[in-house]
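This section describes the prediction task in plain terms. A model, or a person checking by hand, is given the sequence of a single protein chain and must write out its three-dimensional structure as a string of tokens. No templates, partner chains or ligands are provided. The sample shown here is typical of the held-out split.
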Amino acid sequence: MARSSMTTPRLEELPVRRPRRRLHRRLKEVPVLPSVVTLGNLFFGFLAVAKVADALRRTSPGAAFADVLPYFELAAILVFVAMVFDALDGRVARMTGQTSSFGAQLDSLADMVTFGVVPAFIAKVLVDWHAQADANRLLPIGPKLIYAAAAVYVLGAALRLARFNVETGADEDDHREFKGLPSPAAAAVVCALVAMFCTRGSESAQIGHWLLADQHYDRIVVMLPAVLALLGLLMVSRVPYPHAVFALAKGRHSMPVLVGVVMLVVVAAIEWQLALVTLTIGYVCWGPLLGLYRLVTRGRVDDDDDDDDLDLDVPVRPAPSRN
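The expected answer:
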């Protein structure tokens, strides 16, 4: 009987598949100057958390908020100092030609801590301080709602930064407009409201006390959980937000814009807390209004285009003669 041509190969004839060595990527060089500036952002964010922790450590339960007011005000100021470093790191990297993936990842991690975790922590502690059954009580909501509002803010900041890294390039033109509220702007709103609340019993805040009564200051804390949740949703939205510096520095503007900027600078020189609240809330409202304006004008343009197409496609009949 003839031997079949299809024979089973022997064990020693089978090819040996050796496991591939896993390639480990090693970071050899890092941009020093931009990284130091980015770490300054993270450092001041950590200091803001530390100041609030000091307020909790150095006071007994039920202590008056006036005893810890300087800690919260300093924590808000430190977040704004961190924003200065955040605004400088990208520009320093582009000026020195040291843009890198390492710098982008480090910047996102620093932003997540400083503008994601820190404002939510400051706001949560402030609301908790005024949601207890003591003399500081301003709102009766439970701790679960406070946790939920702060969590929405933190998770929104994380998703916002992750989407920004995927959709945005290193080119400076990609930073002229943002999709969704930027995390530094959201942090600025929270810290500006905290700083404004800290002026409730201050005699130097004359403009604020002329415009607002004591119950209006109390409403800042009452509305803070809703503000946290709203900011978290705006960060993950597609609402267009222009870069404020590019919007003001590029091109010419009308005289009312110049007058408004000068008035804001004057108010900031007298009472910076009120100026920051006005500026940050105005920027938050700028995005939805800009999106609505574009939606309305784009609809008008589309309607005009449809009318033009209709006029071109359908011939116009001459009016019948009455003679």
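For orientation: The chain is about 65% helix and 0% strand.
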